[in-house]
Amino acid sequence: MTAKRIMIASDHLNRIAAWSRGLNEQEMAVARAGVVEKSFKANGFICMRGDQFDYWTGVVTGLVRVGNVSRDGKAISFTGLTAGAWFGEGTILKNEPRGYDVVALRDTQLALMDRATFHWLFENSVAFNRFLVRQLNERLGQFMGLLQHDRMLDATARLARCIASLFNPILYPDVTRHLEITQEELGALSGISRQNANQCLKTLEKEGLLRLEYGGVTVVDLAQLRRYGE
Fold first, then answer.
1. Rounded-to-integer distance, Cα 156 and Cα 192, Å
2. Nearest 5 degrees, angle CA 216-CA 217-CA 223?
3. Are the CB atoms for 102 and 46 separated by under 8 Å?
4. In this structure, are residues 196 and 151 in contact, taking their beta carbons and an 8 Å threshold?
5. Arithmetic mean of pLDDT, 32-54
6. Vertex 55, ends 16 and 107: CA angle to 5°?
7. Exposed, middle or buried, 131 (CB in 10 Å: 0-12/13-18/19+)?
8. CATH entry 3.30.700.20 includes domain 2-141
9. CA gap 209, 221 in Å, rounded
């Protein structure tokens, strides 16, 4: 794990963190001083369940899986996080150990905001708090949907909803219709095998909802992906 210790530039922070675009000059200065970037290798743990990982975290590049492993070894995925996503605000606000594992599915660059900076912005910035309220509300809806999908939908529908969830404009503000992600990574996020993910993706492509391309997928009908299986 390597770190860039040079103070982050304002324009760079604006590119990687949508929440920073509404900050005033003083708030931006505080945010810049409290953020550092670190890199993680593919399949490496960023933090493990029970760790006191005291950073609010943003994905600069790469792909992150948030989940847990049950006592019998079954992996459970809560969500996938692509560039532009920030996570962990609930743990920082509650000052408690992480309740989940966070793994880099590929080489990943993260932006880490220390606890003191997060709390200063929480106490002083209206724009920052507005972002947090929207983010927490969207995340709650995402997890409620995940629970319903896991219990009620088949593999193809779960994969469709998983892909659609990666296009949430609040959680992933700068995403385009092309998603750079492998079938293995989609399987890991959806809780299915790579082979099963391949078959499900072919079904979705045949139905005209997406296009399979080298190194990723392009969404054609996002609305239908969000409703798939109903």
1. 10
2. 150
3. yes
4. no
5. 95
6. 55
7. buried
8. no
9. 5
Question: For residue 155, what are the contacts with CB-CB under 8 A and spacing of at least 6?
Answer: 190, 192, 196, 200
The pLDDT value recorded for residue 4 is 46
Report the length, in residues, of the chain.
230
Q: What is the DSSP string of 193-209?
A: -HHHHHHHHHHHHHTTS
Q: What is the pLDDT of residues 177-206, one digit of tens each?
A: 888 888 888 988 888 888 999 999 999 999
Identify which of 219, 144, 145, 143 has the alpha carbon closest to the alpha carbon of residue 186.
219
> What are the structure tokens assigned to 34, written together?
């409290």
In one-letter notation, the amino acid at residue 64 is V
d(CA 87, CA 113): 11
Could you give the CA distance from residue 160 to residue 82 in angstroms, rounded to a whole number? 17
What pLDDT digit, counting tens, does each position of 90-129 carry? 999 999 999 999 999 999 999 999 999 999 999 999 999 9
More confident: 84 or 175: 84
| Residue 48, C-beta contacts closer than 8 angstroms, at least 6 positions apart | 98, 101, 102
Closest CA to 179 of 221, 219, 139: 219
Q: What is the CATH number of domain 153-227?
A: 1.10.10.10
Domain boundaries, the chain: 2-141, 153-227
